[in-house]
Amino acid sequence: MPTEISEKILSEVIKTRKSATHKGNYGRILLIGGSDNYGGAIIMATEGAINVGAGLTAVATHSVNLTALHARDPEAMFIDWHDKGLPALIKKMDVIVCGPGLGMSTMAQQLLKILKENVTAKQTVVLDASALDLVAQDKNFLPSNAGHLVLTPHQMEWQRVSQLRIPFQTDQANLTALKQLVPQGNVTLILKSNHTHVYGEDGSVFINPIGNPGMATGGMGDTLAGIVGGMIAQFGPDLKTILAAVYLHSYAGDQLYEDNYVVKPTALSQSLPKIMKKYATSLEKC
Ligand SMILES: NC(=O)C1=CN([C@@H]2O[C@H](COP(=O)(O)OP(=O)(O)OC[C@H]3O[C@@H](n4cnc5c(N)ncnc54)[C@H](O)[C@@H]3O)[C@@H](O)[C@H]2O)[C@@H](O)CC1
Ligand SMILES: Nc1ncnc2c1ncn2[C@@H]1O[C@H](COP(=O)(O)OP(=O)(O)O)[C@@H](O)[C@H]1O
Ligand SMILES: [Mg+2]
Predict the structure, then answer these.
(1) Distance, CA 101 to ligand 3 centroid (Å)?
(2) Per the database record, which ranges form the YjeF C-terminal domain (predicted)?
(3) Rounded to the nearest whole angstrom, what is the distance from the C-alpha of residue 218 to the centroid of ligand 1?
(4) Could you tell which of 35, 38, 42, 81 is best to mutate to test the pocket of ligand 1, judged by most ligand atoms within 8 Å of the CB?
(5) What is the pTM of this model?
(6) CA dihedral 106, 112, 113, 119 (to 10 degrees)
(7) Which domains does the chain have, with CATH numbers?
(8) Which ipTM score applies to this complex?
(9) If you average pLDDT over every residue of the chain, what do you get?
């Protein structure tokens, strides 16, 4: 039986910031995605990362998205995803989120190749959306040389990757498929649904008991990918951080659903700093 994630995970993971710190202490994250058709996806992922408090956020996307990105989120740095400086930038990051709005083009495939060639064991890679669809087409796209991998498929994406049709996605079958996909085991699977399951490196299984159908809106998963990446950038790649990110996303969604028919992903992101402040546990002041 999976263990229910509970509210206490938020105060366990979210820490009050010490005075003697700077942006360099809260992690560097790069988000790769946003084709000329799907710019909104990478912007929503970026808003997730910024609003959970990633120290430095950079975005590699199609140049057509630059103005919209900076108009909404001037906190984010931008690099054209064709830029020759991308490999060097990847090397500087703690976390790389790849996939929201990436698309399936030759360029998208090239970007996954560049990611795999430049990522190291010190880094965490979060793969979402199109990046997972490309892995489903060719397992060689999986950057398994990263220190830690986090996969965030919805059930249909997981069907494509694992070859398990949705009715057959039981916990046991999912764990077996995950082991086949990443034999070295440095992977966490966030299998999204109305009650998301999380599969840890050690074979542990968790279920998210909260969330609501107001969250069934395009961009909600892109936002989660950014939240997961931003939380890992700042609190480290432990399973607890990942569970807190999943819970926080749904908790924020539930707060908004109390008096909204639909939960807009951008509104969810904007509500995060206030919620996190409430759950921050005190550290000794320095
Ligand atoms: N504003 C934007 O730019 C947006 C861009 N998006 C991007 O569009 C690309 C395609 O992703 P999509 O997910 O839309 O398309 P997919 O075709 O990969 O999956 C969506 C379909 O899967 C099925 N499905 C079954 N179980 C599901 C579950 N539990 N959750 C969700 N879907 C389930 C549904 O029929 C749904 O229509 C990705 O790159 C994605 O990031 C989407 O994230 C939506 C918003
Ligand atoms: N009915 C629902 N109940 C709870 N959570 C939901 C519901 N529908 C969607 N969600 C959540 O919204 C997110 C949707 O992710 P995804 O399908 O990848 O969206 P997108 O690709 O459009 O950004 C997931 O985190 C999922 O758990
Ligand atoms: Mg998605």
Answers:
(1) 8
(2) 6-279
(3) 7
(4) 38
(5) 0.98
(6) 160
(7) 3-13+26-276 (3.40.1190.20)
(8) 0.99
(9) 97
